[in-house]
Amino acid sequence: MYKELCIASLRSDKDSSGSDLQGLGKISLKITLADANEIQGYISELLKKDGKPFLQQCLKDCSENLQDAILEIKDSIAAIDSRSYGDVNTWVSAAMSYEESCEDGFKEKPGFKSPLTQMNAKFSQLCGISLTISNLLAGKA
Predict the structure, then answer these.
(1) How far apart are CA 30 and CA 130, in angstroms?
(2) Distance of CA 97 to CAs 65, 83, 84, 123, Å?
(3) What are the tens digits of pLDDT across the range 59-86?
(4) In terms of C-beta distances under 8 Å and separation of at least 24 residues, what long-range contacts does 72-79 make, across chains too?
């Protein structure tokens, strides 16, 4: 699942080379959190630029949902430290739902295209990587 992204993202962290699976799980979650924060910053910039009401509402909805996802990823980082992999799986799975709900909002108006599709897809993939590592840690993979 997303092998190239997994390898590239984990290698981007200097601490990954000597890490065990537990450490890689935490690194993966931190990378996912950083990505979510990057999306949030981009949404903030878009909200300042374009005054189209439909776009503004979609972006605001995405931003609110993303805030929840960010909290879930933060909770997951704490949970992985305490080896609560079931909690990690629950929260990361919930965070992954952000992408679909955000993109669905833009689809409500025919012909309207989300400016966040690529970023959201990457976030979802990073969540998937974190979930895979958590499942390995829990012995479910």
Answers:
(1) 9
(2) 9, 23, 21, 10
(3) 999 999 999 999 999 999 999 999 999 9
(4) 73/29, 73/32, 73/33, 73/36, 73/127, 73/130, 74/33, 76/29, 76/130, 76/134, 77/26, 77/29, 77/30, 77/33
Q: Which residues contact 94 (CB under 8 A, 6 or more apart)?
A: 68, 69, 72
Q: pLDDT grade, residue 46 (50/70/90)?
A: very high
Q: Which residue has the tokens 């400016």?
A: 115
Q: Please give the structure tokens belonging to residue 96.
A: 């992954």
Both tokens assigned to 97: 């739902």
